[in-house]
Design goal:
This protein is mostly beta strands and about 80 residues long.
């Protein structure tokens, strides 16, 4: 299988490092490179853990069922 996704997690490349639970977007499909997604960017999912340097990034797909942790840009009111 060319792109196996166990537990709805894909492996992507990145450079510079990305913190855990941050939304990411694809910047280059040919190399499967990801970067932090902005508020108006289409994200493919959230980082499973913190990566540094040029480590591969495990990204949990946004379209799959289940819960995931995310980092909010501001405080979220209860209710």
């Amino acid at each position: 299988m060319a792109d196996q996704r166990d537990h709805h997690v894909g492996t992507y490349t990145q450079s510079g490092g990305i913190a855990a639970h941050r939304r990411v977007k694809v910047t280059d499909w040919a190399t499967r490179a990801v970067a932090l997604a902005g508020a108006l960017d289409y994200s493919i999912g959230t980082m499973r853990g913190t990566v540094t340097g040029t480590q591969e990034a495990a990204v949990q797909d946004r379209h799959k069922v289940g819960t995931r942790k995310m980092v909010a840009a501001a405080a979220i009111a209860a209710g």
